[in-house]
Protein 1
Amino acid sequence: MGKKKKKESNYQFAIEVADGFYQTGLSLAKHSHEAHYDRGYIWIPPGVVNFSFATELLLKATIFYDLKQKPWGHKLYSLYQSLSKKTKQKIETSYKQYKKANEKVDSLPAYKITIRVGDDDKDHSKETNFDEIKNLLEIHSDSFENWRYIHEFGQEGYCYEFDFKAMDAFYKALVDALKELLKNEKASFGMKLA
């Protein structure tokens, strides 16, 4: 067997692709919230997975342009923690503004799904407050994996939640930070349809 070739990343392209995942997640979130559709829940996991992956891609691009290093891993909170203090402050300022603006957006829901196994009648839910990014990302850090495999559960069951409004505010705050980091960058990729 041959050696695996090292892959390079183009983070400007990743930003563009992230927008596709984000727009898809946004559309699915809104679709899941439509009252007239009796199976709206089927759109929640795909919406969460798309939203989460878009956020991961933007975080990785932000790390690359902020720290000039290739990021690793999938946990949103760990990725966020690696950013410089200056960039995190910009993101936190933007996040609070977008979060406040999103309070009036009814089409972006928040969901909490609990799977109880056997005689488990405990309330596994916790009160969550996403005013701080730390709280948001600790809860949403593993959303890409958890919601992708939502149909799988062990003896313990689970309680997952996803707040589309808060994650939308975080995503938009990342976009703002990237605009600042990329303001002097030249385009490094091109695409044409065959």
Note: The chain has one domain: 11-120+129-181.
Protein 2
Amino acid sequence: MNALEQAQHKMREAGVAQGAIDVFTDFHGQLEGGATGLVREADVDPLAGIARADDVTADPAAQREAAAVTAIIKLNGGLGTSMGMDKAKSLLPVRDGLTFLDVIAGQVKHVREQLDVDLPVLFMHSFRTQDDSLAALAPHALQVEGLPLDFLQNREPKLRADDLTPVEWPADPTLEWCPPGHGDLYTALLASGVLDALIDAGYRYASVSNSDNLGAAPDPAMMAWFAGTGAPYAAEVCRRTPADVKGGHLVVRRDDGRLVLRETAQTADEDVEAATDLHRHPYFHTNNLWFDLRQVRETLRERDGVLGLPLIRNTKNVDPADPSSPEVIQIESAMGAAVEVFDGATAIEVDRSRFLPVKTTNDLLLLRSDVYGVGPDFRVRAQVDPRPLIDLDPRFFKTIDGFDARFPHTPSLVDATSLSVEGDWSFGRDVVVSGQVRLADDGTAQHVPAGTRLG
């Protein structure tokens, strides 16, 4: 068997859906053909002239009408590995003992009660996050009759960088596999039968976001806006700041005028300066999406289940913790890249409040602090603008265990401009941070006593 056939065989033996194998086959062919997935600056123009959510208005009837045919989809397949976790990040407590999943459940229930609609919420899990997350969600009784509460993301083999064959790693066979990126959303929706189930139940639109972004609450006004556009697809974008120069942003392809998502991994070295220029490219992609379920299904059927998303080629080691382990290629795609697939796809500028992802313990400290408040609608709102900058020493605060041990009590940050912690510091109860604060490393474990005011 050649390299592709070996990979296909491995996926079939593992029970991977045929639709996912077909998508993988398309990407493997691109790899063999030398595709890089790069989006060149010379081939694109900046995004401009888009709608603004602040200008969106919709009467209660239009909001309820749209909410009655909208489904909420949350991507919940990621482990919090960057924070030393081996389970879903969404199981972390964020506010008053509430986890990400608890807050999401509260947001969904609020809209249901407010508008008297079913508003189904579905979680796309990975095989590593499914059981624990469903157990945590069970008390909320979120499932809508006739629809599942979740569906599974697919998986694919990591490929040896030298010959594109599936890597073998007997020391830990689970490391031979990787997720195909969140671009797998469309394949998983179709292959699982969830796309058909939603349409058959009378739902027309989907609002999609990451479970670690509590800012992306179900918003009936946005639902009415999207329904009113008639667009097949829409992406939420935010104004960039110097902290947002990395990550995906939308551009306009010159040869056909289509919106295109350019991720960091798709940016050529010589284009980095232009791509990270927040004046030239003023918006970043929030990974909050909207799409018409019927048009997505029709397009998938026309293309035999393969949307043809751009390839993202990620080169890593088979064991991320062992730099001497074989180099592999992980084939990935971004769900936001589907913006270029659909005629009439659009974008809307949203307030920063709809983008509150937690990627590091720096983000988690802010979210747990009094910088944010959670209302009766379970929406998470900043109490100050701009929010303080947090920089915690990764030697001691990178993992959730190290972080929680040193922050058994979250300090007040609402009056802070910045907090920089260098070294091994722990914090007592009722610590208040004001203005710019930097704690220096003296080489020993140090403690901020209870009731201390810093700054």
Note: The first helix runs from residue 3 to 13.
Protein 3
Amino acid sequence: MARIWRHGKVAVALATVLAAGLTACSSGSPGSTSGGATGTQDSVDAALKAGGTITYWTWTPQAQAQVDAFEKEYPNVKVNLVNPGKANDAYTKLQNAIKAGSGAPDVAQIEYKALPQFALTGALVDLGQFGFTSFETEYTTSTWNSVHVNGGLYGLPQDSGPMAMFYNKQVFDQYKLTVPKTWSEYLDAARKLHAADPTKYIAADNGDAGSTESMIWDAGGHPFTSDGKKVTINLQDEGTKKWTTLWNQLVQNKLVANITAWTDDWYKGLGNGTIATLVTGAWMPANFESSVPDGKGKWAVAPMPTYDGGQPVTAENGGSSQAVLKQSGNAALAAAFVRWLNHGNGVKVFVQQGGFPATNADLQDPSFTGKAWDYFNGQQVNQVLTAAAGTVAKGWTYLPYQLYADSIFNDTVGKAYLNSSDLNAGLLDWQKALVDYGNQQGFSVNAS
């Protein structure tokens, strides 16, 4: 699930551990990500049979039901479930435990964008040694690629966030707006809506790193590339400029509401019609149900607009994996739990509890795609969302220090939103800060 990052203590913790971790990632060290170890699942099966106790850190709402089901299926295994807080709090605690050399869980939920940073510190177990590389064809391409770092497999995908456009059908009908199929039509709808009622906006956007990255991804941008310690950053590439050409018109003309995502005001705006659309990941329907009760019966889902009106294309927003920590005293049992969560019966429980899976079989299951959502007036929302999962643009990669990058987003790009000014200037400020930081941490970073 997508998270909002703010600068602060997490950035300090990340910088400290990443700097130390780069040394540990030299060839032949415990943290080496080269080679991509492969093996069999025999030790995992044996660990399940032997039993034991492991600790699992996660903030997912489905976790308790999954743990209960796992312990019922394997009564000789005890899973201590810990909610370490939302993503930023969880990562700070995890980094502190890694730095201290003790206190980390056996298994942790780690978002795709965060996985490279933890893998580079040598903190995670390469699951290839347990034969998990054989699962490749069972996951969507984008999520499978997201759990690999320099040839190693450092987690199994849990969920995915292919993007779609959630829109307030009541507002669209009231103001006779056509559901946009292109971004040009989206811009026209934004102008028409705000002119008709200045209290209403096509979207709320005051600068969110995850949303910006996903929108650049959707536009065909590839601003971040890395090969080991070599990193290139280009936040003015063709795809990035395509997105800013569109979004600048919304920001500079104040056609998007300056409401911070995931706040009470944001949920209120989704419920009362102030915010007319939300372009985000496929995990959002359950959040609408639980957090926007006033929106029930008002909202619908459509494919993400395209730039040229041609074949559908989308991106991922959010999504998490489960990884095994090197500090685990029983890595094989921890890996067995990760396998069950994301490759076994745990996926069924996850879906039953409202999760959006990353496994192809579950995404194609008629009971999943055909589910009629009461909240969305009986619309079979998952049909739109699973179709989006098959049209995710290829080739996107995150920085090996993406968590730090997101933590300083509001200090750079965020100012452009605040001042309703050129997003490109903010992106260049962000780029400079990221180049400087990466070089300080031992990477070889160039801006192209």
Note: The chain has 20 helices and 15 strands.
